[in-house]
Every structure is written in structure tokens, then in C-alpha cells.
Amino acid sequence: MRVAIDAGELASAAKRGELRRPSGEEMPAEQEEKTGPTGPEAERTIIDELATFLSERLGKEVLISGSELSLEVEDRAARKRIKQLLKKFLYKQGLDGEFRVISLGEEGFKIKYRRFPRIRPPRWV
Questions:
Q1: CA-based angle 9:12:18, to the nearest 5?
Q2: pLDDT tens digits, 56-67
Q3: d(CA 50, CA 19)
Q4: Which residues contact 45 (CB under 8 A, 6 or more apart)?
């Protein structure tokens, strides 16, 4: 069974330069001006990072076409694992407050913006 992952909104946010670090972290002074790649190279980077993350964890080949990823899975348990890994990727990138993973039925998943982003309380040291 083929599973498709539509990461169009994630890629377009990277292209516009809207992906930012979690609110609790401050940027070092030398990196304040340069926040990372923007434009088409940023879109490719986030999609490539997601593809390598999934292929390392699942041990399967992930095909990239535009902003869509696809891979072959055996059963329903593997689909649950893919959703879990997508959520984990968003968390590790600090994007879990802005994006969420939605199931599109049997054909795959979509990474979408949250309507109401989570507001995290400040961390007290």
C-alpha cells in the first residue's frame, strides 16, 4: 500500500522564511541577521530533512516529488508509525505548535497549519 505525505504548507512556509525556532530559545548574536536559507533552497532542505528522517527510522525508500513524499507500507500499524514519526519530526524541529498532521484516509497524510497556534508558557529557569 502506497502512502503519500503532502507537506506543501510546510514547504511553502520554509520558502517564505516563516519557520522559526521555538519561543523559549534565543538566537545567538551572530545568527540574528542570518536565520537560515529562504526561498526554494529552504523548501528543498525541509523536505529533504523529512525524507531522510523517515527513511532512517522506517528503513524504507522515500520518494520525493515536489512537496509530496511517498513510500510503500505493509499494514495499518505502519501507517500509525508514520503519523507518529511525522509528529516527532515536527516536535524536533520546533514546529509542533504551528503545524499538525492530518490523515487523508487510506491514501496518506497532510501537514497543515494549525488554525489556532499553541501558545507555550515561558520557561522559568
A1: 100
A2: 999 999 999 988
A3: 14
A4: 14, 37
